[in-house]
Amino acid sequence: MKTCSPPSGRFHARYFAAHWLHGFATLILMTASAGLSISAESNGANSTDRRVPNMVLILADDLGYGSVGCYGADERLIQTPNIDRLAKEGRRFTDANTTSSVCSPTRYSVLTGRYCWRTTLTHEVLGVFSPLHIEPSRLNMASLLKRRGYRTAAIGKWHLGYGDAQGALLFRTDYAAELSPGPLDLGFDYHFAVPANHGDLTGVYVENRFVYGLRSGNIPAGLTLPGPAADDSNFQPTYTADDMENPRAKILDLDAPRRKNKRVMGTLTDKAIAWLGQQSSDQPFFLYFTPVAVHNPITPDDDLAGRSGAGPYGDWIHELDRSTGRILDALDQLDLAQETLVVFTSDNGGVFRPENTASLQTQAYQAGLRVNGSLRGSKHSIWEGGFKVPFLARWPGKIPAGTTCREMVSLVDLLATTAAIVGQPLPAADQAAEDGFNMLPALLGDASANPIRNDLIMHSADGVFAIRRGPWKWIEGIPVDAIKPGARKSRAAEHKAQLYNLDNDPDETQDVSEANPELVLELSSLLARYRDGGYSRELPPVITKAEAPPTILPPPIGTTVMQEPLDALPAAPWTAPRGTWRAQDEAVWGTSQPRDQQPAGLRGPLPITDGTLQYDLCFRQADRHSLRIHTAGNQHSFRVVVSPSLLEITKNPSAGESQDQTLPLARLRLALKRGQWHTLRVTFQGPQVVAQIAGVTAKANHPILGQAKEQMYLLVFEGDAGFRKLTVVQ
Ligand SMILES: [Ca+2]
Questions:
Q1: Are residues 495 and 568 both part of a single domain?
Q2: Does residue 235 share a domain with residue 365?
Q3: Residue 639, SS3?
Q4: Ligand 1 center from residue 385 Cα (angstroms)
Q5: SS3 for 185-216, per residue?
């Protein structure tokens, strides 16, 4: 049984219930008796209520459970006096959890009170070019607080996408144009951001709806976008491969001021403090401040280099601490600290792979820093090290100072908690904040209200689910089909069902599922019920899911010009120039090793201009299949790429063009089961190509698509895939 330590404050409300709807009336009672004046009546749109607190949410990036002083980091290695100050002046949570062990999904949950796996993002994170992932119509922290009269800002790393998806097409976000919809459409008044990650391939900041200081691009006539002074030393003239987390990525070509990595934390903090300084005392504010530290690349500022005893990673933690201290100092100097709730936490656990001896986290580990404390696992994983994070809350006079709370809470609870703080009833559980509980009683130290939540769902980068209830944690162990072979291998231990008792075994060493079959059944049923029911802050009804009927395409129309059953290795003019090809089970299978530079390839003729090419495709381990088609004379080619999660049509560079002339034409999400056959149909008509598979249709237009075709390549990347029943009609 988890309990909160007794509060040292002066709050004695005994009427809280775990559920917000039930707890709302008692909140009024409690706050009235405590001398607070949260008004239940003033819930009209745009009403300004100065009696509610300002809110500053500091969401660090990849900060592990053991990486700050007040969570046990050795002070000989690192010192975090400013973050520790929040523990002294506020409340420290020992069982606060992120919803995901990676960035974007947790950030979605923080703002919306909803598990991100309920959206289209079912594993990993959003890309740099992903559209805005939060629907503008969805209730979120900013829209709720703006409605209550708050001024609102999102400053720091964003990583929740910009722009719209233009229907189902996942076209790349155009950073040289207006980035709408974006945070300003979610309820934020001001936005200044690193678009995705520290070291991302954009190399720029975004301010409000455009790249900061963009000098040329698709800018409306008459609009000038402000940027830094030409001699601002926080910026640099160029952004190079050395600045990027992934040096092989292609830097986005933008005519705009370039970030200087060592100054990103300083610049973001400057912007946050400047914004705080612009706030008036008669209007409450909400600052969503999201430092890039301590995500890779590790780039502490020059004056911090070498100051920690844990190498550059320790210095980088110092940089996060300094930034936090500057925010707290600014609140002091503006005389706002007393009326401001400050929450400090992290979006997922720390990066920790001791086998990667070159990493700076490993160097810090070798110096003695336990990045995630004693917890198993790290960022990306389904183990506790991926989810359990520092969580500190300070609200002078309201939150009991210097206390510790062992209550199990989640970052998905912040929206419901915010609603409680400002006295805003939440819509029904299936409408908004689907998975969030009001944790205000735990913040205020009201022990009578626990548990805040009975259970908790977590989700790994591979899409593996786990559910906690009481001392138990059950890991379902099923990754999504689309994960890469490398992840399938390196995280194989997470890809099986297992049960742990975290009270006895917080480091997840003993799988006790065999001894507790009834418990496993109970937890797996509960997980399925929450997952299928669409929400978890109430128990949803049991949903019986009907199996979706397979999508059957009508026969292609036209005259058959080619029939290749592919039940044996096809004869000339077919060739197999690369990889291993073999016939099995009335199909042909191509294999390439994950380390191969080249895919396995099978080459055949394609003697049509307009017409239809169709075959069955089955993924085993392969990462993706590419159908590459060359036009007559071999001057041009294009490809239809199918992976278990994506369908793409792309024009390849033509003869004489450089590799960066690759032109994406269409990109859609797919959900293909591995081990099953799916029919891929590609129809050519004039300059249009239509690719269909598993009920998803991608269309692309380009003049070269209308040219006479000559050859096709069936390519298999990183693993094995099968092909059968190939037909061409015209
Ligand atoms: Ca992160």
A1: no
A2: yes
A3: strand
A4: 13
A5: HCCCCEEEEECCCCCCCCCCCEECCEECCCCE
How does 695-716 read in b/e, with b if 16+ C-beta sit within 10 Å? ebebebebebbbbebbbbbbbb
* CATH number of the domain encompassing residue 579: 2.60.120.560
**pTM of the model as a whole:** 0.81
| Tens-place pLDDT, residues 312-364 | 999 999 999 999 999 999 999 999 999 999 999 999 999 998 889 999 999 99
| CA geometry: angle 60, 64, 67, nearest 5 deg | 95
Q: How far does the centroid of ligand 1 lie from the alpha carbon of residue 94, in Å?
A: 19
Shared-domain flag, residues 499 and 604: no
Residues 6+ apart with CB under 8 A from 223: none
Q: Is the pLDDT of residue 74 over 60?
A: yes
Give, to the nearest 10 degrees, the angle between helix 81-89 and helix 311-333. Answer: 50
Residues with CB under 5 Å of ion ligand 1 are: 61-62, 103, 347-348
Q: Is the pLDDT of residue 306 over 70?
A: yes
pLDDT in tens, 274-296: 999 999 888 999 999 999 999 99
Distance (angstroms) between ligand 1 centre and the Cα of 102 equals 5
What total of structural domains would you count in the chain?
A: 2
Is 397 part of any domain? yes
- The percentage of residues in the chain with a pLDDT greater than 90, rounded to a whole number, is 81
For tokens 């994170």, what's the residue?
A: 125
First-to-last CA distance in the chain?
Answer: 70
**Residues 508, 376 contacting (CB under 8 angstroms):** yes
Can the peptide bond before residue 479 be classed as cis, meaning omega within 30 degrees of 0? Answer: no
Q: CA angle at residue 719 from 714 to 722, to 5 degrees? A: 45
Q: How far is the CA of 158 from the centre of ligand 1 (A)?
A: 11
517 and 623 housed in the same domain: no
Quick one: pLDDT band at residue 29, thresholds 50, 70, 90? very low
Q: Above 80 in pLDDT, residue 19?
A: no
* Same-domain check for residues 634 and 490: no
Give the number of other CB atoms < 10 A from CB of residue 171: 16
Are 177 and 86 within one domain?
A: yes
Report residue 190: phi and psi, to 5°. Answer: -140, 145
Task: Give 193's strand partners.
Answer: 156, 206
CA distance 327 to 342: 10
* Residue 468 near residue 454 (C-beta atoms within 8 A): no
Q: What is the CATH number of the domain that holds 96?
A: 3.40.720.10
Cα(62) to ligand 1 centroid in Å equals: 4
61 CA to middle of ligand 1, Å?
Answer: 4
Summary mean pLDDT of the chain: 90
Q: How confident is the model at residue 382 (pLDDT cuts 50, 70, 90)?
A: very high
Together in a domain, 316 and 367: yes
How many C-beta neighbours within 10 Å does residue 504 have? 10
Tell me if 437 sits within 8 A of 19, measured CB to CB.
Answer: yes
In the numeric block, which tokens belong to residue 102?
């990676």
Which of 343, 344, 363 is CA-nearest to residue 352? Answer: 363
Query: How far does the centroid of ligand 1 lie from the alpha carbon of residue 349, in Å?
Result: 7
Q: Which domain holds residue 652?
A: 560-729
Longest Cα–Cα distance in the chain: 88
Residues 99-142 have pLDDT tens digits of 999 999 999 999 999 999 999 899 999 999 999 999 999 999 99
Give yes or no: residues 75 and 223 share one domain: yes
Task: Enter the DSSP assignment of 551.
Answer: P
As a whole number, mean pLDDT of residues 91-98 equals 98
Say how many Å lie between the CA of residue 223 and the centre of ligand 1.
35
Which residues have a Cβ under 8 Å from the Cβ of 719 and sit 6 or more positions away? 485, 591, 592, 594, 619, 620, 621, 622, 623
